[in-house]
Write a structure and sequence with these properties.
The complex is a heterodimer of chains A (171) and B (338).
Chain A (H helix, E strand, L loop, with lengths): L3 H12 L5 E5 L4 E5 L12 H4 L5 E4 L14 E2 L18 E4 L4 E4 L15 E2 L4 E7 L2 E6 L4 E6 L6 E2 L4 E7 L1
Antiparallel strand pairs in A: 1-2, 1-3, 5-12, 6-8, 6-11, 7-10, 8-9, 10-12
Chain B lengths: L5 H15 L4 E2 L1 H8 L3 H13 L4 E4 L3 E4 L8 H4 L13 E7 L2 H10 L7 E7 L17 E7 L3 E2 H23 L3 E4 L3 E4 L2 E13 L2 E11 L19 H5 L5 H22 L7 H7 L6 E6 L2 E10 L5 E5 L4 E4 L3 E5 L5
Parallel strand pairs in B: 4-5
Antiparallel strand pairs in B: 1-3, 2-3, 5-6, 6-11, 7-11, 8-9, 9-10, 10-11, 12-13, 12-16, 13-14, 14-15
Classes of the chains: A mainly beta (171), B alpha+beta (338).
Chain lengths: 171, 338
């Protein structure tokens, strides 16, 4: 069950996106949120990146109708090299994803060796990278036991919420 | 309290006694009785207090008198500057020289130090800035880390560093009358030069942040020689800009007094940065300026329009397109030299 605070938070988050409608369904509950004014909604470029949670989230961007759409701010990271997310589904392994929007760092300092390399063995507590936003450094742990088989983001790159950062072969 | 050594507890007790009896002589015998250790041990600890800035007058047979409150951010000194309503920073661990106060705070956390504990140091040998840049932290600066362990959702955690920026600027303005400004997201500038940096490290379990170590480093009484020649056009200190010395403990108390209610609002009522967004904008050093931002691996130039309630920077590009910068660094602007 979602708590009231969490629902409030969802509404706030939804407000800040260009997503028009959000539906969450689990075994025990259903939540549907819709924005009142659908005509000013632009098609978000990043919707595909956000559908990665365990709960079922439908994001249905409404195509803008006849009236002109105000130019909504576009997340800049979209111009970055696209991660190999599109074909991610077919690939084997577990993905370590970014829990937040931020800058991806593979090492604690520029002159230090990266936390992990391709082939590194990790356990759930192994720090694999740092994602930084607003001068907040979040050390990301692997959360699983396995071997890093692919590094999917570049050092210093801006990463999106839910973006795959590493592919891990589970052991 | 196992996270604190007996030696530290004795030193704090001794410092408290002297501060309580400011200007009054205390004899070695009195102190020995009060604290429950030998007179020789008392002298040893008084030597430590002298090293960190306590000045004693010695009078034969009468004892030792503390002449004035030192500027050192030692717990009994810091708490003198805290408002009654301020709960953060009631426990302060002070070290003379450390690698980084954030590292000590992290160790103390695992040893059971409570929420609100602060770590201060006279000097840091490995102070850190963003991207692992070193932050020069000689004697005279305020080098502190604050341990915050109230649960917080991850997507709200970025507000802590923004709030800390506003709190610090506000403290300098309200308590000391200094026109501090903010460079996005939370560098503090005085007369367009950086005097303070803020950086936090968090531990999160998926979406739940269970601890934040908030590091604040301020060039309080640094002199020109303390600043690398190549940084002198962009970095400074309170003392260099005003010609006055400041008490590090008082600056720390002032920051905590401003930050405390903002943090409470964030973790208890979900208010957070949205409540001080207007104030942030009024303190912003580059609003309406042409700025250049390092964004991941590329640089973008544009007009700084605003920030949203999550602290995301809004910029207007030459082609009229508006972009959102959720993470990055301003590397150039019209009014600030970098």
């Amino acid at each position: 069950m979602l708590k009231i605070g969490e629902i409030r938070e969802l509404i706030r988050l939804l407000d800040e996106t260009s997503i028009h409608e959000l539906k969450i369904e689990t075994d025990t509950m259903k939540v549907l949120m819709k924005k009142a004014d659908a005509t000013t909604v632009a098609v978000p470029a990043s919707v595909e990146n956000s559908s990665t949670r365990s709960t079922v989230v439908y994001a249905e961007p409404k195509t803008p109708e006849s009236q002109p759409v105000p130019s909504a701010p576009v997340p800049v990271s979209q111009s970055d090299t696209k991660p190999t997310q599109e074909n991610a589904g077919e690939q084997e392994g577990h993905f370590i994803r970014s829990p937040m929007v931020g800058t991806f760092y593979r090492a604690p300092a520029p002159e230090s060796p990266p936390f992990v390399e391709k082939g590194s063995k990790v356990d759930p507590k192994t720090v694999v990278c740092i994602v930084e936003a607003m001068k907040l450094m979040n050390e990301i742990e692997a959360d699983v036991k396995g071997e890093i088989i692919e590094i999917l983001a570049e050092n210093g790159q801006l990463v999106e919420y839910g973006q795959p950062l590493f592919r891990v072969r589970l052991v | 309290m196992t996270w604190r050594s007996d030696t530290e507890n004795i030193r704090l007790h001794l410092a408290e006694l002297f501060i309580e009896h400011l200007g009054e002589p205390l004899s070695g015998e009195q102190l020995s009785r009060e604290i429950g250790i030998s007179r020789t041990a008392i002298w040893k600890h008084m030597e430590y207090l002298t090293e960190i800035g306590f000045q004693f007058d010695a009078a034969p047979r009468r004892g030792y008198t503390l002449k004035e409150i030192p500027d050192c951010p030692l717990q009994p000194v810091v708490v003198r500057y805290l408002k009654n309503s301020t709960t953060l920073g009631r426990q302060v661990t002070h070290r003379s020289r450390v690698h980084s106060t954030n590292t000590i705070a992290s160790e103390l956390l695992s040893q059971g130090a409570p929420h609100g504990t602060a770590v201060t140091a006279d000097e840091q040998s490995g102070g850190r800035g963003r991207r692992g840049r070193s932050w020069i932290s000689p004697f005279g600066g305020l080098w502190m880390s604050l341990l915050l362990t109230r649960p917080l959702p991850l997507h709200r955690a970025g507000e802590i560093t923004l709030l800390a920026g506003v709190a610090t600027a506000r403290a300098l303005e309200h308590t000391f009358g200094l026109p501090a400004r903010i460079k996005w997201p939370n560098d503090i500038l005085l007369h367009q030069k950086k005097i303070c940096g803020i950086l936090a490290e968090i531990r999160a379990d998926g979406e739940n942040v269970h601890s934040v170590i908030l590091g604040i480093g301020m060039n309080v009484n640094l002199t020109e020689n303390d600043i690398l020649p190549e940084l002198r056009n962009k970095a400074s200190s309170l003392q260099m800009e005003t010609g006055q010395r400041f008490s590090r403990a008082e600056v720390m108390g002032a920051i905590l007094n401003e930050f405390n209610p903002m943090y409470t609002e964030l973790v208890e009522n979900g208010g957070g940065f949205a409540k001080v967004q207007e104030e942030w904008l009024s303190l912003c050093a580059h609003l309406g300026d042409w700025i250049e931002v390092q964004l991941g691996t590329e640089r973008k130039r544009g007009l700084c329009l605003s920030i949203d309630r999550n602290g995301v920077l809004l910029m207007k590009m030459d082609n009229g397109q508006e972009i959102r910068v959720p993470s990055g660094e301003i590397v150039a602007s019209e009014t600030i030299c970098y």
